[in-house]
């Protein structure tokens, strides 16, 4: 199985898991990419962590993809973003795992808020993160599987240490470091340590003035935890293949 990650800036990630493509939080109005949403091929699956504008972003440009989100966000996307009923969507919730062709997508909590900015009243449900693997998660450790954790917008939470790290066993994690709206460098570094990942990526930073940070500070904080994770600072459109 092949497992490739491409960063589009902010919290937007493109994943290729064997022959299956997934796009997470497609917001392209950020300094780390020069791509327009029209430049990006429609993925097989579009994953939305929550309903804030910088995460739903340009979702309507990918309305032919199968949407994966909370039932509330799926309903909102069908009503307001032209997602076709024929294509449908996978409404799931925290703790669930769904099979998306070659990938298994598990939804985990994110400690954040989830308002939808619209003239109509919609509930967004709980904000989430996604753990994406090329094998179905089980309690038996699988050294052959490859797993990526997209933490969404979150604060530091003990679930990373108690559930996500030991039971879902991510090999790599993308964590928000921008502070103000999410974790900052110090708490994000502790998250990397608790998750016990081999590879760590920062996201959700430098897009707006309140979340401008020094990524070197995050790397220093990761080292200070004693974590063995390799840190990767990606610019937009850079890719990494997970082995």
UniProtKB/TrEMBL annotation:
Under the heading SMART domains, the entry gives: Lactamase_B
Q: InterPro entries recorded for this chain?
A: Metallo-B-lactamas, RibonucZ/Hydroxyglut_hydro, UPF0173, UPF0173_UPF0282_UlaG_hydrolase
**Chain ranges passing through the membrane:** none
Q: What's one GO MF term for it?
A: hydrolase activity
Tell me if Hydrolase is a UniProt keyword of this record.
yes
Where does the secretion signal sit in this chain?
Answer: none
The cross-references to Pfam families, in alphabetical order and at most eight, read: Lactamase_B_2 (PF12706)
Sorted UniProt keywords: Hydrolase
Q: Where is the Metallo-beta-lactamase domain?
A: 9-204
Q: Which residues form a coiled coil?
A: none
- Report the PANTHER family cross-referenced here: UPF0173 METAL-DEPENDENT HYDROLASE MJ1163 (PTHR43546:SF3), UPF0173 METAL-DEPENDENT HYDROLASE MJ1163-RELATED (PTHR43546)
Record-stated family: Belongs to the UPF0173 family.
Protein's name according to its UniProt entry: UPF0173 metal-dependent hydrolase DM826_09340
């Amino acid at each position: 199985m092949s497992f490739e990650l491409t960063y589009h800036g902010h919290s937007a990630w493109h994943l290729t898991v064997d022959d299956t493509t997934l796009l997470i939080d497609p917001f392209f109005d950020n300094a780390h990419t020069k791509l327009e949403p029209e430049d990006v091929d429609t993925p097989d699956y579009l994953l939305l962590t929550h309903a804030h504008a910088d995460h739903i972003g340009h979702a309507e440009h990918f309305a032919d993809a199968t949407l994966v989100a909370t039932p509330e966000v799926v309903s909102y996307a069908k009503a307001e973003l032209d997602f076709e009923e024929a294509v449908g969507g996978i409404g799931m919730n925290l703790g669930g795992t769904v099979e998306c062709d070659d990938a298994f997508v598990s939804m985990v909590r994110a400690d954040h808020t989830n308002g939808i900015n619209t003239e109509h009243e919609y509930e967004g449900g709980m904000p989430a993160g996604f753990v994406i693997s090329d094998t179905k998660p089980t309690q038996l450790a699988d050294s052959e599987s490859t797993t990526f954790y997209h933490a969404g917008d979150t604060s530091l939470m003990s679930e990373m240490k108690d559930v996500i790290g030991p039971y879902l066993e991510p090999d790599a994690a993308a964590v928000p470091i921008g502070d103000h709206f999410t974790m900052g460098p110090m708490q994000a570094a502790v998250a990397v340590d608790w998750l016990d990942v081999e590879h760590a990526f920062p996201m959700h930073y430098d897009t707006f003035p309140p979340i401008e940070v020094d990524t070197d500070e995050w790397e220093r904080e990761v080292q200070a935890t004693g974590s063995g994770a390799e840190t990767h600072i990606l610019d937009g459109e850079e890719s990494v293949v997970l082995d």
